[in-house]
Amino acid sequence: MKNKFILIVALLCVSLSLSQAKKPTLMVVPADNWCYQNNYSEPYDNQGVVKDIPSYRIALQRDTDLDLVITQINGMLSQRDFDAKNLKSQLDKIEGAAMEEAMRSSKYGGAEVAESPIDALKKVAKADIILKLGWTVNDDGMEKSVTFILKALDSYTGKQIAQASGTGAPDFSSPLPVLLEEAVASHIDAFLAELQTAFERWFEKGRECSVGIRVWDDWDYDLESEDFGDDELGFLIEQWMEDNTVNSAFTTMDAEATMMNFEQVRIPMTYERKGKVRGLDARRWAKDLSKYLKDMGIENKLTTVGLGEVKLYLGSK
Amino acid sequence: MRNLLIFLGLLILSTGHVEAQSKRKRKKADRETAKWNYSIECQGEAASGTYTLKVYSILTDERLAAVQAQKNAVHAVIFQGINAQGRICKGKPALARSIKLEAEREDFFKEFFASVKRNDPNNFARYVNVVEMVTDRQKLGKKKFRIGSLVTVNVALLRKKLEEENIIKSLSSGF
Fold it and tell me: CA torsion, points B35, B39, B43, B49, in degrees to nearest 10?
C-alpha cells in the first residue's frame, strides 16, 4: 500500500514537472523606419491605393550587416534557450507558399485575395514576439559611432514589451560590423531582462488578447436576446469571460445588439486536459467560449486574426 | 637520532603554523567579505557576456585586495547590477530579480563566496579574472585602504551556474 502511494506521488511529480506553458516564438526583423531610410522598400497596391512598404527580402539581399546583426541576436537568444525564427527561411517559405497558391488559383480560377508581404510573413512565421531592430551610423568625419535600437512587440496586442537603445562609444578605426557587434552585445542583457519581466507578467497576470463577437445577419436572435438563460446573451458572455480570465481581467469596449468587442482580455498561460497541463493560446482558449455557446444551442464559427485576436460569429458555421 | 626528532618536531610545528595562518587569513578574508564595502565602475564589455569592471574595495588588509575585488565584482553583478558609464558602458541589470534573494538563499551564497580553492565549481572565483590587481591605492585611515582593481566577470557562465542551481530563473523558465 505504502509503495503504491509512493509510486502515485512520484508519477504526479513527473507529470507536474512536464507541465509547461507554450514557449513564445521570436523573430528578428529590421524596423520599418530603417528599411525606408535605406530604400529597402517596394510599392504595394492595396486595393487601388499604392504605397511603399518595407521589403525584408531586398534588405537581406543588399545589406550584409543586417544578416550579421540578426544572426548575432539569434545566437544570443539561443544561448538563453530561445530559438528565434530565421527571417530569411521564413521569407523562403512564403515564396514557396505563394507559388503553391498561384498554381491552385489558376487550377480553380478562384478570386485572389490581396495580402501584403508583411501580413504574409506574419501568417507564415506565427512569431509571438517580433523583435524590430534598426541603427544609424553617426560619422563626424573623424570618428564613427552607432545608434542602435531594438524593440520587442507582442504580436497578440502590438504592444511594446521590451526595448534597448543608445549610442555606442565613438571609434575612428573599427569597421561598422564591429561597432554593430559591440552595440548588440552591450544592449542585449538589459533587453532580455525586460523581456523576462514581460514573461513573468504573463505568468502572473495572464496573456493579453482581444475577443470579438459578431452576429450573422440571418440569425433569428441577437446579443440582447434573453432566450438562452436568465439574462441577455451579451451579459451571459460577459459572465463567462469573468469566470475564465485571470483575475477576471478584461475590458468590454463595445456592446451592441449585433457585436461585442473585448480588449485586454487576460487568458491563462496553461490549461489542463486529461490530467496534463498544457500551453494555452488565444484560439484554444476561445474554443471553450465557442463550446459554451454551442451548449446553449448557439451554432458559431471561430476565427483568428493574427495570433492574439479571436472572432466568434454567432448564428451558423 | 635526537636531531632527527627535533627536526621532525619543528617540521610538524611549522606545518601546523602555516595551516593555522592560512586558516586565519581565510577567516579574515571572509570577515571582510561580509561587509561588502565596495564601489564598481564599468569599463566596457570585452566580448558578449563578459564585463570589464573596476572595483574599489575598502579593506583593512590590503593583501586581500585581489580576492576581495573578485568577490565584490561577482556580488555586484548578481545583486546590484552595473551602472551605465557614459558611452563606454550601458547599464546592466542585476542577475537577481528579487531584492530578497541574498537573504532567501543565504546558505548557498555563504558557500559560494567562501574563500576556498579556485577550481571549486561552487565558488565565485571560477567566473572572474583579475586583469590588474592594484590600479589605485588610497589610504583612508590607520588601517583602512581603498584599493582599485581591474577584473573581468564572465556573466554568461555565472548566469548559467545560478540558473542550474535554481537560484535565479532562466529566460525560458515556465515555458
Answer: 40
d(CA A202, CA A21): 11
Cβ-Cβ contacts under 8 Å for B102 (sequence gap 6 or more): B79, B96, B109
Q: A47, exposed or middle or buried, with CB in 10 Å at 0-12, 13-18, 19+?
A: exposed
- Residue B100 distance to chain A (closest CA, Å): 17
CA distance A36 to A41: 6
Whether A270 has a pLDDT exceeding 80, the answer reads yes
Question: Which is more confidently placed, B79 or A126?
Answer: B79
The reply to whether residue A185 touches residue B170, judged by beta carbons under 8 angstroms, is: no
Query: Collapsing DSSP states into helix, strand and coil, what is residue B63?
Result: helix
pLDDT(A310) > 60: yes
Q: 3-class SS at A91?
A: helix
Cell of A166: 543608445
C-alpha cell at B72: 565584490
The domain segmentation of chain B, as residue ranges, is 2-164
B39: left (phi over 0), alpha (psi -120 to 50) or beta: beta
pLDDT in tens, A158-216: 889 999 998 888 888 888 888 888 888 888 888 999 999 999 898 899 999 999 999 98
User: Mind telling me how many Å the CA of A206 is from chain B's nearest CA?
Assistant: 13
A152 close to A160: Cβ distance less than 8 angstroms: yes
Taking alpha carbons only, the member of A69, A9, A191, A180 closest to residue B93 is: A191
B88 contact A CB<8A: yes
Q: Are B158 and B74 in contact (CB under 8 A)?
A: yes
What whole-number distance in Å separates Cα of residue B38 and Cα of residue A31? 41
Ordered domains of chain A (ranges, CATH): 26-203 (3.40.50), 206-314 (3.30.1360)
Residues of chain B neighbouring A269 (CB-CB closer than 8 A)? 174
**Chain A residues touching B174 at Cβ < 8 A:** 20-21, 199, 203, 269
Q: What angle do the packed helices A117-125 and A87-108 form, to 10 degrees?
A: 110
Do A81 and B171 make contact, defined as CB atoms within 8 angstroms?
yes
Which tens digit of pLDDT belongs to each residue from B58-106? 988 888 888 889 999 999 999 999 998 887 888 889 999 888 998 999 9
Comparing C-alpha atoms, which of A307, A304, A271 is closest to residue A21? A271
